[in-house]
Design brief:
The chain is an alpha/beta fold. Helix content is 47%, strand content 12%. The protein has 8 helices and 5 strands; from the N terminus they run αβααβαβααβαβα. The N terminus is likely disordered.
Length: 200
């Protein structure tokens, strides 16, 4: 009897106290940490903040430089099966816009990603993007796409991922497209304002 109790206690003590829930980030170079070290990118800083706050979440950052909404859509189901996220941050669309890809196609991809994520039981935060004014009416419709999707799907919305740094050129790398390491804590604080309510 004592041996059985000892073995049971040993087994129980070796098991993890809890299984952390996962926040899945599906983004492009702005979330992949292009031009900086991966540990400096905002998703890595998010993981550090969650640990510091003793929140029961881990971060899986599956962002890829150059990714489009079509690419994210094609990878999402496998990612959902592997990580079983509680929350998913969809930060895609910038490359669709910069390439001038058809907006109905972008919206279809984002809608499909939101639907798949919610069908898996995950909460969704959609991170929007803006294009330079020289894109004309396309830029206006592009920006509205994120707001419309979030409203129609009733998901969380971060209207513009780069809001806190967009007007500060010193926080961008030489290409004037990708934020520096110094910009990442500001981006994280901005993301956190919309993400934190989804963690409750």
């Amino acid at each position: 009897m004592r041996l059985a109790l000892f073995l049971f206690a040993l087994l129980f003590s070796s098991a993890p106290a809890f299984a952390a829930k996962t926040i899945l980030v599906m983004g492009d170079s702005l979330s992949a940490g292009y031009g900086i070290r991966p540990e400096q990118a905002w998703p890595a800083l998010l993981a550090k903040r969650l640990h510091e706050k003793r929140l029961d979440y881990s971060v899986a950052n599956l962002s890829i430089s150059g990714e489009t909404t079509a690419g994210g859509r094609s990878r999402l189901n496998a990612a959902l099966r592997q990580h079983k996220p509680a929350v998913i941050v969809i930060a895609l669309g910038a490359n669709d816009g910069l390439r001038g890809l058809p907006l109905p196609q972008m919206r279809d991809n984002l809608n499909a990603m939101v639907d798949a994520a919610r069908a898996s039981g995950a909460k969704v935060l959609l991170a929007g993007m803006r294009l330079p004014p020289n894109y004309g009416p396309y830029a206006t419709e592009f920006l509205a796409s994120f707001t419309d999707i979030a409203r129609n799907k009733k998901t969380g919305l971060l209207e513009f991922l780069l809001e806190p740094v967009a007007t500060r050129p010193e926080l961008f790398q030489a290409d004037a497209l990708h934020p520096t390491a110094e910009a990442q804590p500001l981006i994280l604080d901005h993301v956190w304002s919309s993400l934190a309510p989804l963690l409750k």
